[in-house]
């Protein structure tokens, strides 16, 4: 998939998230089904924060000319060969560094998603014209170049659709 198709698919996924967001109250977005599990709102903030503060930042770093080249891990190669994450639940132990806060408003979530879309639109034409450039290591997937980080954002948002559906059903009771 090229960067234009990736951006289009990403925008469609974000539109789906925004459409679904309309149907939830702030209280529902803050509802935690069980101890140690994220609320729907935390999942939304995880998507926004990981894109803005890690993935898009790593794209910028990869576009600098003085970077290094590295290799993907076996897991990274598998995810990119598959074109997405396998449909399995990935749980990370709760921590102050990784667990997103509860949302304080729906508007913050909407603004965050819109900011990610804006930055994805801004960087996509640059990626089309860039070389493979350098790589920045992902904790699980190994060395990814700017285009791969870009594709990872789309794959990550798509992967969390499964969690969104599970949490939506938990809210409905």
TrEMBL record:
Signal peptide coordinates: none
Entry-linked InterPro entries: DinB-like (IPR024775), DinB/YfiT-like (IPR034660)
Span of domain DinB-like: 10-163
Protein name as annotated: DinB-like domain-containing protein
């Amino acid at each position: 998939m090229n960067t234009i198709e990736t951006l289009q698919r990403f925008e469609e996924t974000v539109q789906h998230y925004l459409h679904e967001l309309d149907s939830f109250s702030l209280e529902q977005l803050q509802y935690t089904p069980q101890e140690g599990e994220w609320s729907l709102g935390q999942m939304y903030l995880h998507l926004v924060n990981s894109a803005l503060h890690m993935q898009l930042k790593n794209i910028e770093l990869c576009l600098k000319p003085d970077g290094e080249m590295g290799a993907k891990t076996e897991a990274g190669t598998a995810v990119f060969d598959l074109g997405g994450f396998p449909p399995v639940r990935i749980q990370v132990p709760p921590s102050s560094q990784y667990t997103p806060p509860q949302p304080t408003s729906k508007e913050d979530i909407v603004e965050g998603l819109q900011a990610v879309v804006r930055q994805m639109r801004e960087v996509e034409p640059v990626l089309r014209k860039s070389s493979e450039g350098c790589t920045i290591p992902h904790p699980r997937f190994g060395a990814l170049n700017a285009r791969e980080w870009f594709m990872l954002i789309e794959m990550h948002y798509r992967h969390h659709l499964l969690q969104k559906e599970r949490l939506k059903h938990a809210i409905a009771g």
